[in-house]
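Your task
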Amino acid sequence: MMRQFDTSMGGPQAAFPSTLWSELLDSNESDRRARFDHLAQTYWKPVYVYIRTAWRKSNEDAKDLTQAFFAQMMEKGYVHRVRPECGSFRGYLKTALRHFLINAEEHAAIRRPKGFLLHLEARPEEWAGLGPISQEESPEAAYDREWFQELLESATQTLKDRLTGEKKEPYFAVFRRYCLEGDGGTYREVGLNLGLTESDVRHRLEYVRSLFRRILRERIREYVSTTEEIEPELRKVLSD
């Protein structure tokens, strides 16, 4: 579990960049399929977890419904109709999924799409964890939990890659030990374990945390509609 840390970013507000969502809406027909496929590959796990939690479906049934949901989004053009006033892509997708499941319950034929087919790729050991963590967890909570988990894992890999590119692999070792590996101990204990002073640990963590927050902001910018949504979403990610 990741340790919590300050989510404030500081600095002036930059112009809001284009997002994966806005790029999808503005793309021509030939590019739209590829961009939608990228979105679907990025966000299919929260959809799958929502379905398993809402209906308590088996792995294979949940896969079929996940495929069918994204197929319907593409083939019926639902994604192309949305606009920034709809809110974040995370919220829009969750609402669309709720409506889809109401119809899917009534129409069994919707479950096996013949056109658009999304490749659901996960390691064998991952499938067991893609489901509700308790009987009390709501589909909405399961969806958000998986969404934020995917976001953190993606950002952590980007963090590692960037630090490697900067020749700062030891910085990531400190971050992993203190922030990612459960109770990593105090700065002093981490330093003793890695052969660093307490001051070195503090300095490296400050650098890596700042970089990690910037990476998370970049990821969040891809699916929200306004700059004002970034900070609340960042707090949700880091407190989940």
Observations:
- Residues 51 and 57 are 7 Å apart (CA to CA).
- The mean pLDDT is 78.
- Residues 18-131 form one domain.
- The two ends are 10 Å apart (CA to CA).
